[in-house]
Design a protein that fits this description.
The chain has helices at about 15-30, 40-60, 85-90, 115-130, 140-150, and strands spanning about 5, 65-70, 75-80, 100-105, 135-140, 155-160, 170-175. With about 180 residues, it is α+β, with helices and mostly antiparallel strands. It has five helices and seven strands; from the N terminus they run E-H-H-E-E-H-E-H-E-H-E-E. The protein has a seven-stranded mixed β-sheet, with helices on both faces. It is about 40% helix and about 25% strand. The protein has one domain: Gcn5-related N-acetyltransferase (GNAT) (Aminopeptidase). The longest helix has 21 residues, at about 40-60. The model has no long low-confidence stretch (mean pLDDT about 90).
Length: about 180
């Protein structure tokens, strides 16, 4: 694995992170074959920037980000906060009191190098230090769904064709007291 620094973001990271979110979301939409869904892509980017603003304004109390850096270059992000409206709606509010892990992004040139695992492990440690014992996460991206299924097993909720024919949405509930498989 590449040697990266993991740290909290600061206000001076905002512009770099905005650029990073746009680059990674655009790359993801291209790889998923949904690049034509421009409004959804812009909505995703806007949501990530809103989450970042919430983190910076609350000093990590309402959203909590971690960054992975290779030198000065941002190569990964992860965050947690209150379960999204989508998760609450899709679970009939069963997960409304859980924290959601999201914004797990790794720069395309740095994927499959263990950075996502490192970020997740550090975030889970931060959550456990705050007394959080379980969390949820969701994904509508097929490639990410394969990774999360390998790591956390079958999702608790599988919403078939949620995003259109062949595009499912998955939601996991993760108990951190249970051993979690590494992603290879």
């Amino acid at each position: 694995m590449i040697n990266v620094e993991i740290r909290r973001p600061g206000e001076d990271d905002r512009n770099s992170l905005n650029h990073f979110f746009r680059m990674v979301v655009t790359d993801t939409f291209n790889k998923e074959g949904i690049a034509d869904m421009v409004d959804d892509m812009e909505s995703e980017i806007k949501a990530k920037n809103t989450y970042l603003a919430t983190d910076l304004e609350s000093n990590g109390d309402k959203r909590f980000f971690l960054l992975a850096l290779d030198g000065e270059k941002i190569v990964g992000t992860i965050e947690y906060g209150a379960a999204s409206e989508l998760i609450c709606t899709c679970t009939n509010n069963a997960y409304k009191n859980l924290q959601e892990v999201g914004t797990v992004f790794v720069h395309p040139d740095y994927q499959r190098k263990g950075i996502g695992n490192l970020l997740l492990n550090r975030l889970m440690l931060a959550m456990q230090n705050k007394g959080i014992a379980e969390f949820c996460l969701d994904s509508g991206y097929g490639n990410a769904q394969k990774i999360w299924t390998k790591k956390f097993g079958d999702p608790a909720y599988l919403l078939e064709n949620f995003w259109g024919e062949g595009y499912h949405h998955m939601i996991w509930r993760v108990d951190m007291s249970v051993e979690i498989a590494p992603i290879n």
